[in-house]
Specification:
Blueprint (H helix, E strand, L loop, with lengths): L8 H5 L2 H29 L3 H18 L7 E2 L2 H14 L1 H20 L11 H17 L12 H18 L5 H15 L29 H33 L5 H17 L6 E2 L1 H10 L5 H17 L1 H5 L3 H15 L7 H6 L2 H17 L2 H21 L3 E5 L7 E10 L19 E11 L2 H16 L3 E5 L3 H10 L8
Parallel strand pairs: 4-5, 5-6
Antiparallel strand pairs: 1-2, 3-4
Helix pairs in contact: 2-3, 2-4, 2-11, 2-12, 3-10, 3-12, 4-5, 4-9, 5-9, 5-10, 6-14, 6-16, 6-17, 7-8, 7-14, 8-14, 9-10, 9-11, 9-17, 11-14, 16-17
Length: about 500
């Protein structure tokens, strides 16, 4: 097995130490999924059981069809926010139909190759994504720390202490699981009255059944659900692929983004046909699984779904008494571990280009304000693109060589990458009145990238011709010459 590859499922199943690690990681994730799924169900306006069913169905499904091992997929807040209006305005039937359609769209997007767009996400956006994620995870725990009995605070501190110091002694058992067990025992044996998982909502008592939404198959139905389904599909893909890329970096392994995209679609479709609310990759739970518990394979993902089902169906009375303080401590630890502290050190900020820092801050601010990772990433990418274009635009140089002895010709050397941002001022770099009758534009040190540059060159030629002067454009490389020959004279010259 390669150093830079995760252990396979079969390898893990044959090695008790690895299997134990994956099993315990899945158990911790399952416990953390319960209150999250209930909370997201409330956001979407559906019964808590809908979120719980969706979480275990999607976790089990993605374990088989997903492209990123050890990543957790379940009901999420981003998806809940997107499709909540459907439930509010049209009811559960249209809600489930939206989830199914979103799954179909994700499969189609995967076939269209949308996953390849991930390479256009800059590193600064990725860092902003990670840091904003850590902040959101922490902020999501604040409701559990406000207007609660005072006993919650020492319990959270104790849970954090266990997770900080226990790994220094042993890694046999995941520290989060030990913290959850200790805090549960303390609250039960000492009768400490603090909020528990059972206070978050009713746990299901029966298995989900096949659910086919009873909606008319018509253009009217499609016009209602399609906008929400498209939004859900895109948000789910973006959040899932960003999470997959983050796990790739943490584990130093690769993953198939295309497979992950259509796998998310399959998981959402299966979730919808069993009455689930759908979702995408869960960043917080994935960090618990990968970074805190050390899981690396699909086994942990599969077992997270299995344990979730077992816990809510067979051990709901025990699960109900787990204090929320234990899960709050786990999530705070996750947020601290997720945040890229190196990126905000003064020494790092001082060395980093201001544009890179601006992009990171823009991503973080938008995500924290909107509570939507997808919007933040889009804003970050747009900001990075604008700043890059602005920076590159200043790298174009036009140098005028003095006319020959007979003053019959003049040469201009154009250097740099020419595109819409850098070529806009190209027409202002020539002396149309004073130049001799023959003008040579040497572009051997430049490259034409778009139609805007061809239009700018056409404008230069037109301006010289008005003064009775001829222009030769020389030195074009093969691709630039092909674009210039194809478009020159075919574009409207703006005066």
């Amino acid at each position: 097995m390669s150093v830079h590859s995760s252990p396979t499922v079969w390898f893990t199943l044959r090695h008790p130490r690895l299997l134990t690690r994956e099993t315990l990681a899945g158990l911790v994730v399952a416990l953390a999924l319960i209150p999250e799924a209930i909370a997201f169900s409330i956001i979407a306006g559906v019964d808590p059981r809908v979120g719980l069913f969706s979480s275990f169905i999607m976790a089990i499904t993605i374990a088989f069809v997903g492209g990123r091992p050890a990543m957790i997929t379940a009901a999420t807040g981003a998806v809940a926010l997107v499709i909540a209006p459907v439930m509010r305005d049209y009811g559960i039937e249209y809600f489930i139909a939206t989830v199914i359609l979103a799954g179909i769209l994700q499969i189609l997007f995967a076939v269209a190759g949308v996953a390849r767009l991930m390479r256009f996400i800059p590193r600064s956006v990725m860092i902003g994504f990670v840091n904003s994620l850590a902040i959101l995870i922490f902020l999501s725990q604040l409701p559990q720390l406000i207007d609660v009995p005072w006993q919650v605070y020492p319990l959270v501190v104790l849970g954090l202490a266990v997770m900080v110091f226990l790994p220094r002694l042993t890694n046999v058992v995941p520290a989060p699981l030990v913290a959850i067990a200790i805090l549960t025992i303390i609250t039960v044996t000492m009768a400490v009255a603090v909020p528990t998982i059972g206070d978050q909502g009713e746990l299901p008592r029966s298995l989900p059944t096949l659910f086919v939404p009873n909606v008319p198959i018509s253009f009217e139905t499609l016009s209602i659900i399609a906008p929400f389904a498209i939004a859900m599909a895109l948000v789910g893909i973006l959040e899932s692929l960003m999470t997959a890329r983050l796990v790739d970096d943490i584990t130093d392994t690769g993953s198939s983004k295309t497979r992950e995209t259509w796998g998310q679609g399959v998981a959402n479709m299966v979730s919808g046909f069993f009455g689930g609310m759908g979702g995408c990759a869960m960043i917080g739970q994935t960090m618990i699984n990968v970074r805190v518990s050390g899981a690396r394979t699909r086994v942990s993902t599969f077992l997270a779904g299995v344990f979730l089902l077992v816990l809510i169906m067979g051990f709901s009375p025990i699960v109900a008494i787990v204090p929320m303080a234990a899960l709050v401590a786990v999530m705070i630890m996750v947020s601290v571990a997720t945040f890229d502290w190196h990126s905000v050190r003064w020494s790092t900020l001082r060395r980093m280009p201001k544009s890179e820092t601006t992009v990171m801050l823009a991503t973080v601010i938008v995500v924290v304000v909107t509570h939507n990772l997808a919007i933040g990433v889009i804003v970050g990418v747009v900001t990075a693109s604008v700043l890059f274009a602005r920076r590159v635009a200043h790298l174009v140089n036009v140098q005028r060589i003095e006319p020959t002895a007979d003053e019959q010709s003049v040469v201009y050397h154009v250097t740099g990458e020419l595109f819409f941002a850098s070529s806009n001022d190209l027409t202002t770099q020539f002396d149309y009145v004073a130049d001799p009758v023959e003008v040579i534009i040497d572009m051997s040190q430049s490259h034409i990238w778009d139609a805007s540059t061809v239009a700018a060159l056409d404008s230069v030629v037109t301006k010289y011709e008005r003064y009775g002067k001829s222009v030769q454009i020389v030195g074009l490389n093969t691709s630039s010459a092909a674009m210039h020959d194809r478009l020159s004279g075919e574009l409207k010259v703006l005066e």
